[in-house]
Amino acid sequence: MVEVMVIGATGVVGQQFLVALADHPWFHVAKLVASPRSAGKRYVDAIRDRATGSIRWYCDEPLPEQFREIVVESFREELLDDVDLVFTAVESDVAREIEPKIAEKKPVISTASAFRYEEDVPLIIPGVNHDHAPLIERQRQNRGWKGFIAPIPNCTTTGLAISLKPIMDAFGLKIVLMTSLQALSGAGRSPGVIGLDILDNVIPYIPKEEEKVQKETLKILGNYAGDHVKPARFKVSCTCTRVNVRDGHTECVFLSTEKKATVDEVKKVLREFRGCSDMGLPSSPKRMIVVHEDPFRPQPRLDRNTEDGMATVVGRVREDPALENGIKYVLLSHNTKMGAAKGAVLLAELLYKEGYIC
Amino acid sequence: MVEVMVIGATGVVGQQFLVALADHPWFHVAKLVASPRSAGKRYVDAIRDRATGSIRWYCDEPLPEQFREIVVESFREELLDDVDLVFTAVESDVAREIEPKIAEKKPVISTASAFRYEEDVPLIIPGVNHDHAPLIERQRQNRGWKGFIAPIPNCTTTGLAISLKPIMDAFGLKIVLMTSLQALSGAGRSPGVIGLDILDNVIPYIPKEEEKVQKETLKILGNYAGDHVKPARFKVSCTCTRVNVRDGHTECVFLSTEKKATVDEVKKVLREFRGCSDMGLPSSPKRMIVVHEDPFRPQPRLDRNTEDGMATVVGRVREDPALENGIKYVLLSHNTKMGAAKGAVLLAELLYKEGYIC
Amino acid sequence: MVEVMVIGATGVVGQQFLVALADHPWFHVAKLVASPRSAGKRYVDAIRDRATGSIRWYCDEPLPEQFREIVVESFREELLDDVDLVFTAVESDVAREIEPKIAEKKPVISTASAFRYEEDVPLIIPGVNHDHAPLIERQRQNRGWKGFIAPIPNCTTTGLAISLKPIMDAFGLKIVLMTSLQALSGAGRSPGVIGLDILDNVIPYIPKEEEKVQKETLKILGNYAGDHVKPARFKVSCTCTRVNVRDGHTECVFLSTEKKATVDEVKKVLREFRGCSDMGLPSSPKRMIVVHEDPFRPQPRLDRNTEDGMATVVGRVREDPALENGIKYVLLSHNTKMGAAKGAVLLAELLYKEGYIC
Amino acid sequence: MVEVMVIGATGVVGQQFLVALADHPWFHVAKLVASPRSAGKRYVDAIRDRATGSIRWYCDEPLPEQFREIVVESFREELLDDVDLVFTAVESDVAREIEPKIAEKKPVISTASAFRYEEDVPLIIPGVNHDHAPLIERQRQNRGWKGFIAPIPNCTTTGLAISLKPIMDAFGLKIVLMTSLQALSGAGRSPGVIGLDILDNVIPYIPKEEEKVQKETLKILGNYAGDHVKPARFKVSCTCTRVNVRDGHTECVFLSTEKKATVDEVKKVLREFRGCSDMGLPSSPKRMIVVHEDPFRPQPRLDRNTEDGMATVVGRVREDPALENGIKYVLLSHNTKMGAAKGAVLLAELLYKEGYIC
């Protein structure tokens, strides 16, 4: 078993890591790390509200029994000796400081954006661009690290990049325009989105989100070029909004392909896209992309849990009357499953399988 | 005073007509028409639920006192003798049957889609394309009518067409792509959208909506050509979704102009667009378009009532990195005010002022 | 295997029956009955929307494969020859007409209210008042039926009666006052509650609900007296409201016991109440009542699926300062699981086990 | 004009004070006080978000022009020389520290709970228990203050106490049991209720709320006894829950009167209750209590703005079958209007009129 540490284990994303790692066939959670306030407490007490005694557990799945009694620790570099792999679930500013220190010794799979845009850091979605993984070696050389940092993309990028991949491969891409209708859970809980602000409302702006999605999509779908990734050459633009939905980001995509493609051809390549489904990764969806014919799908509440939240669900594939070789569709991607902790575990599985870990 | 009749007066849109017509300086409600079930009852009793005695009044504004006691009638052609103008708030299939009969004698301002796409029927937004009004004369000649049918556009078209007009005039338009996040009230109440379906959800499809918006936008922004309107020549595509918002359609627009325009230039033409603000129409907004600098605006709950729901509120005007001469922005338009009954009253005001009525 | 028929199989409650009966160890679904419009179609086609091709399946669980291809039939009395037991999921007026005809030949487990208040009809919750079951024999004699009608209670009654039972048995009850905050799914879909009406709102009235709950609670907790049930003698009053929650009725209870009981004593009897947990019924919860110490529980979204929606979840057990021997608490009961189809299957399991069926 | 200071002017309640005080006929806002971070800025800049430039204004009404340019100050005792009256909109711990210092010199009308339960502090609702006002003199003597502290009740208490007053006066009260369904705005914004927690949910607990309501109701409806208020002698118990509603607390009341009263008699005393309607107070509702016959009312969204949020709206008055001389009803009270800043202004109007201020 690969011994793993989760940093930020008591937060929302940390909790999702525990669910994703419970009874994992390859990874064994050896260390739970959180802020000094939690250190020394059993996990179940570390997430207990002092005033009311309530347990602050935010996943739909129950807190796995195996983690209840583990004593949470503060981060110390010595702890790294006991683990083979570190998952981080911390804010970007903390990540910027702590992740390089860890990477000196051990691999880091990160949910933070801190290092996503650095030249020697790949941004990998298994089944989409795992051929970028060798950049990790370059990163190690550049930085003199034994470990490395491998971040996952922003949760809004993930579904978009997955759905674009088979279309790009088959027909080429010229232009991609996307409007997102994002779920509340993407904003976290500190304080996240206030109920008062989202009730009977849409918030048409998510700071920095659009820039992240635009940049990351091109990096993921770009070409590995030895010492960096050459971004894909199509144009991307998006508008990111927040709607009153708990989980599941809906994205309305308009695109223009290089080569004319019919609606049926597009559906076919989407349906046939295997992604990482055949790679033997335990957290992989069986179907990377699920395509609906029902025009009322995908809907967040009906479709977000498809393949335990690891599939990208696509519907309303239509010809676009405004763009040259235009296609439009709607996709749904579970922002706290494939788009966060479980997606990070999937990435770790890939890197482990390919020999980058241990 | 112009004597008016409201057909479908007890329904949701009919009620909005009553609010828009209460104490109107030019129009006097002479006749309230509804289904035979309501006929012969005082208005306040016609909208009363028999089982519980509840009054089924759906506007935020209270039921204007002046209409409470008016006796509702069934439609009969003789009633037309007493009025100068008819507003219809009925389903499209009913409109198709009843409106031509009325138009033989009297002008009809319609909220239904039944006649929107006919060649000799203009689709007018005051201040945007009132120069299409002369098509009404052609319609009268073609059909041998004393009256005419003038429909208002779909509520999702209205804000889009208004915001595009000054941009088109200043810079030309090549491509327009729009994703809407539409309010529940747009779906009406029979049965409209079930609470169970929209709670914690987005519905990514509204039957026929996208086709309507695409077609109507081009007709409104087209050129009056004597016996018909020549549609505008840019390309339009949209994806229409339903979100859990009561009133106010949010629309995320991406567009490509003929002539390069900076963000500041676009904001300037939007802000300077007077629309029908100076035409002396009682229901006109003072500001046709309101442009926000705050990136978190427009929001439906905060902005839908701007200028009593008659303004188009625009925000997030940015350069679009994917389209040639690309601009993107978000707009908000009140679907049951400017987009429905009060917008129809505004149109009637224009046509009255220009001599088409009485 | 007991061969069963589901009447109203295509409706929402009918769909929940299919989920509750899929792979059932004792019951085999032999016949699916629905309106003539559905007759002759495969189940999956009978629930397909003609206009859009969408499948109208409303459960969280997927449509069980085993039912997809079954051909739906119209009700005919001859069909009864092939089954041992009938579940009905129809409106009360239909139930009133059809259930007696079926009961002449076969047992009927009904979700409708039509026969709940008749003297020779027991209203049984397994584990609460299964000692009322012998009234079924009297019903058969009275009416000359081979079968019988056994309805389940209103979904709002169920959790209340379950939580009251152990308190009544241990301490006696004098007064019960309850305010419910009911979920949308309790109102069904035809049309149920309109999104426009419940967004940012509470509806303080549910027609006939309060009377049902008051009457049924006393009947369930009453004494079997040979030829009828003598209602319990405590007083009950309730106020039933609708809130913007999908599933799970929250009920705030204030009560006065005959014998003084401490909060700890009340929690103890609630926790120790086994209900039908030890009766070997496949659909029974393992814990009939779950009691939380966390004052923020129960919450519908966090707790409704406890024991697959078959447990009654109680929290906030406190002394009541206003009533003599006062206790107050909050309970949550899943209205479409224990409170509807799966609760009906549980009742059928009890009656089968006790020899009333086959 | 009475010169007034608002402390906490930039917060949500402070903003509501500005709306309530704009163009007030008696009170002139002379000083706006907020935290040192805001000091020295124009009001409109003090509420501007630094990162995005957004103005953080949370009322439905626009920011009154007259306050935009006022320079916000930090609290210093010298500022008190320029004002006659102070409104505080601060947290309870801040109130406990600052309000006594102010009261040494000037009257304080407080929205905080800090001093509500002290013996020489009256808890006054104009029109309900203004006869408690003389306790202010005692407070001054006891504490050697020139000013005084007069807090308003908790927002959940207000509507309950108002609706109980005429019933108590006419029939006497023995027992009151109340379940509240409270709006999000009652929880404020720091952080208030997270959208993730209330979507598709009810939260059955609001810390300390029930104790406040129980204690305050008895104090308000008690008798002024020279040097303190003797609490009313009936019993009160409540359960307070949070629901997904923006503004407007719904309360379901069950009560037992001393003297038997019919439903019509109760409605009559509620309807005839004038409260402070005839006292010539500018912020007073014209109708203190509005009683609906429609069983579907009151609803928060339809009724919260009755009399600009200053009326208590009552519906569903019925006989209660469980309590002796039992009556039950549902009430709605606007928690941020009558229940907060505007209610505080109303109290100040009363105290000014009665000579306690200036």
CATH architecture of the largest domain in chain A: 2-Layer Sandwich
Q: Over all CA atoms, what is the radius of gyration of chain A?
A: 20 Å
Count of helical stretches of chain A: 11
The N- and C-terminal alpha carbons of chain A lie at a distance of 10 Å
Overall 3D geometry of chain A? globular
Strand content of chain A: 15-25%
Query: Which consecutive residue ranges of chain A, at least 5 long each, have pLDDT under 50?
Result: none
Just give the CATH class of the largest domain in chain A: Alpha Beta
User: Helix-strand pattern of chain A, N to C?
Assistant: EHEHHEHEHEHEHHEEEEHEHEEH
The largest interface is:
A-B, 43 and 43 residues
- Which topology of the largest domain in chain A does CATH recognise? Dihydrodipicolinate Reductase, domain 2
Describe the oligomeric state of these chains in a short phrase. Answer: homotetramer
Number of β-strand runs of chain A: 13
Structural class category of chain A? alpha/beta
The helix fraction of chain A, in percent, is: 25-40%
The number of domains of chain A: 2
CATH superfamily of the largest domain in chain A: Dihydrodipicolinate Reductase, domain 2
Widest beta sheet: strand line-up of chain A: 9-6-10-13-12-11
Nearest-integer average pLDDT of chain A: 97
Q: Major sheet of chain A, described briefly? A: 6 strands, mixed
Which features does this protein show?
homotetramer; alpha/beta; 21% strand; Dihydrodipicolinate Reductase, domain 2; Rossmann fold; 6-stranded mixed β-sheet; 11 helices; 2 domains; 5-stranded parallel β-sheet; 358 residues
